[in-house]
Amino acid sequence: MAEMNMPQKEGKGRRKVAAPRIDLTPMVDLGFLLITFFMFTTSLAQQRSMELKMPVPPAMVDVPQAYPDEAVITLLPANNHRVYYYEGALKSPAQMKNCSIGETRQILQRKMREVAALPATYSKQAHEIHVLLKPNADSKYNDLVNLLDEMLILKIEYYCIVDITPEEKLMLQ
Length: 173
What we know:
Blueprint: E1 4-5, E2 21-22, H1 25-41, E3 72-77, E4 82-87, E5 97-100, H2 104-116, E6 130-133, H3 141-153, E7 158-161, H4 166-172
Parallel strand pairs: 3-6, 6-7
Antiparallel strand pairs: 1-2, 3-4, 4-5
């Protein structure tokens, strides 16, 4: 406990009263006890990371799964926050279109509706959209992260990041 130490002086007549002195040692001890209590009971922020589903290496796959061209869309992020895209297999340069990063959600939603309307003869996985992300060398990392966020927002299960082909590089230039 804190106590006040008041020195008493002996002498004749009126005694002198000195200024009281407070011992703060117990208060410092209490401060350190509180600090250690809060340090031990506080949970520090856990590191969060995004889960990426990368394609399975070809050696692990017996028979590659084939999907109809109608269910596949390829997004190619480029410079100036632009995204070039094409649906199905790339057959001609006229097939490639471009848009801004902000417009990709509407394009993906439209493609999801088209894929869901495919005939019932297709497999269950063929009725899901398949997105190939092929970042260009001059694209920004932030653009790729924004596209991955769109995959999570739209709950697209089948997407992967693959290398851009030389033909696609030529078409982007």
